[in-house]
Amino acid sequence: MGGSVRDVKSKAELDEAVSGGSPVVLHFWASWCEASKHMDQLFSHLATDFPHTHFLRVEAEEQPEISETYSVSAVPFFVFFKDGKTVDTLEGADPSSLANKVSKVAGSINPGGAASPASLGMAAGSAVLETVKELAQENGSSKDKTKVQQGLSSNLKNRLQELVNSHPVLLFMKGSPEEPKCGFSSKVVDILKEEKVKFGSFDILSDSEVREGLKKFSNWPTFPQLYCKGELLGGCDIAIAMHESGELKDVFKDHGIDIIDEADITDSGNAKGGISKSTDLSTTLTSRLESLVNSGSVMLFMKGKPDAPKCGFSRKVVDILRQENVPFESFDILTDEEVRQGLKVYSNWSSYPQLYIKGELIGGSDIVLEMQKSGELQKTLQEKGVLPKETIEDRLKKLIASSPVMLFMKGTPDAPRCGFSSKVVNALREEGVVDFGHFDILSDDEVRQGIKVFSNWPTFPQLYYKSELIGGCDIIMELRNNGELKSTLSE
Q: pLDDT tens digits, residue range 79-103?
């Protein structure tokens, strides 16, 4: 073993290593994933610290048979074996958990001592140690994660404030202006170039702490996010609307943002939705790729077929599209090497799967999954006419049913924006009702006005239980004073 990491090239090779009975730690990674690269540094040094354990590495997309066996749908992903059996798994970049799980399966270097963030020993250089510390801080223990979800640490808040103020115009995006990693980011880049303004950018895919923290900092759940003089303007849809109406130009002018000469603007090429046409592709191949990309309203380039995916990443996107009830076409890139390699250049996207909606690149499995979780995917499909647009009544029903106890209020439970909302939050907490959903009606005027009609209740807050309206502040206070609130919310 010798304390080194070995790349696995076949399932037979892996099976042989596992059947030997010695502890085995298997790392599924991808060359395009920065988190995989960071975790691989830690993985290598753990291999040095535990020389009697096999440390194996698999390129997840290049070994679909192995990835499929262990249901790998995201990287980094780790599988732990002992005595020839799978005993544990770990998904995501979590240094402390990886070190502790390795210690558990291999036997701790210092019995009784926890490996956190890792037992790196003298083999780790200062740069690697610093990287591990940063990763541990980003991902933390489950306790730390809970704390981050409740609010931002002062250090992170200061860091985000410094970032948004670092340029007069700053774009938080996926990828870089030269190589956007999603069509929405690409659109905003093109808009800024058309507006002829200098702008800074930050690739949120390169830093999970910034990526997650900024959602809370800005109270804006998706990316890209565009800032001007430290103030959030909005995301892709708002940037497009402001650009088309001329409002964006006025905002830049009002804030003294200088217009730059044509000569200083980097040509974005004939880019559309993240697709950069390349002179490296023949006219025939370019034409063929364009035809394929536009052969369906929703087009998925994947490994295998929808009913028989050949990698976990492709399977994940197929599952998401089916969950959203989206009709889609697909192309198996394993059947055509010319398309497989050519599409990487055509789309400026180096991995698979690739999802397109109405000819525009959306992204790969990670981005599609994030868009589904945030609701952005359904919104995009509706705006593109692939799915029927959701009515305000449908939306309100979903919101009301999203939690057994649901409070429509001004602000949030931790930061109410009116005394009546604050009173109801305190009443719920005093009665031990802490697990309740909430919606800030100040953040969405459509919901704010619509729910008044829907509920036939003109004021806020409004409290619902199992989709039935309980009432507003006065009724909640009366129920609490009569000792009936808790029982009402548990019937």
A: 999 999 999 998 887 787 888 888 8
